[in-house]
Amino acid sequence: MSKTDQLRKLPSVDEVLRLDLFAVSQRHSRQQLTDWVRQGVQVCRSRIINGESLDEANVIAQIIEFVRQQQAADAGQAIQHVINATGVILHTNLGRAPLAPLAIDRMIQAARYANVELDLASGRRSRRGQRVMKLLAQLTGAEDAVVVNNCAAATMLVLQSIASAREVIVSRGQLVEIGGGFRLPDVFRAAGVILREVGTTNRTYLSDYEAAVGDDTGAIIRVHHSNFRQTGFVTEPTIDELVAAQRPSEIPIIDDLGSGCMEDLSVYGLSEPTVTHSVRAGADLILFSGDKLFGGPQCGIVIGHARWIDRIRQSPMMRAMRVDKMTLAALEATTEIHLRGDAISELPVLRMLSADAETIRRRCEQLIERIGGPSGAEIVACDSQVGGGSVPGRLIKSFGLKFANSDAETLAVSLRSGLPAVQGRVTADSLLLDLRTVHDHELEPLATRLRDALAGGQDASA
């Protein structure tokens, strides 16, 4: 059959849609199916033009297979529960901090009608998130607080509200690039402030800041190093020293902490600046993320002196950056947990971070027992990471299951493709499941997924 004849015999989109695609059409709209079928027809058209010979039956089969591939790809993009076996506690691709049960319950309540801006005692309208702000002030010892949708927004809002069209002094060694390729100089520019770099990449002294202060200075900012750590010939002032710097009182010290650490992590061999230390040091404004070591939902939290918080709250950008009711509900519950002193036991992030390696090894043994039969799994020592730009460069001793498989990537794909999805770490010749980041209640579904994948009988509807 000639190329022209083959092209003429390509089925129409409507013809294909009349075929038995019921299993697909149950999950997707007619419009989505039509787009996929149209793309499938075009793929076949291109193959024929490029010299491939396709009979009518082969064309239909290829179009249907193309549609099913698109269905699988679409299912992999839908937001769903993933068992995190990577060992990265604050895994940005997996949504960073998993929420405490109390926070999840509070979000479910808020998903209905909720008293977001209503005082139930008086029946009058209240300020949005009023109780959350009070709780954050109580927890940190700050005078007041505001909450926006993430820490980058908090940085922009603070700079714009406090130092618009003026200079903001920052150490050259702190001009970091944050997630998504956004660079701090770009954030400064977008906020409408003038970047005033001081010091060198590795050494900045208090005298550098003091020498840069002038009539055009709007603020001094310290920025968390995020995903990197400098060692060796390195110097930069502490927040205590910055607060004590020679400067006019109307120039605030802004401490962009990023990680939102509330607990002293030194007992676990980790070092991270805490929010409460910055408050005690006298920083005027402190910024941090809600979904990192604070253990709550994604948001940017700003605490500090009331006069500066008031100015931020009055910014016309405040409404554009405000959080929704479900974020407020989860943040409120998370803050209550911190205030009760139950953060280590109730917040998943801190519970995973504080677990000793022996506890993780026993979890590996339990998982092998649950899998049952020969699995080829070997318990190995490994290193976990905090992740999320927190405690950069530090590793935590852990244990995991290693599956030495000639096709580790195939096993990894199989685990990612079922329900619940499982994300591990693939090396050159094996798949590693670090169980530090796997909850106890996830061991049974993980064992089921492993049995199916190892047997080659994965069931995506399991």
Note the topology.
Elements: H1 3-8, H2 13-17, H3 22-25, H4 30-49, H5 56-77, E1 82-84, E2 88-90, H6 101-110, E3 118-119, E4 124-125, H7 130-140, E5 144-148, H8 151-163, E6 167-171, E7 177-178, E8 182-183, H9 184-190, E9 194-198, H10 206-212, E10 217-223, H11 239-243, E11 253-258, H12 275-281, E12 285-289, E13 300-304, H13 306-313, H14 325-340, H15 343-346, H16 348-354, H17 357-371, E14 377-387, E15 395-404, H18 408-417, E16 421-423, E17 425-426, E18 430-434, H19 443-455
Parallel strand pairs: 1-16, 2-14, 6-9, 6-10, 10-11, 11-12
Antiparallel strand pairs: 3-4, 5-13, 7-8, 12-13, 14-15, 15-18, 17-18
Number of E strands:
18
Q: Largest sheet, if any?
A: 7 strands, mixed
Low-confidence stretches: 457-462
Q: Any guess at the CATH architecture of the largest domain?
A: 3-Layer(aba) Sandwich
In total, how many domains does the architecture comprise?
A: 3
CATH superfamily of the largest domain: Type I PLP-dependent aspartate aminotransferase-like (Major domain)
CATH fold-level label of the largest domain: Aspartate Aminotransferase, domain 2
Structural class: alpha/beta
Shape: globular
Helix content: 40-55%
Strand order of the largest sheet: 5-13-12-11-10-6-9
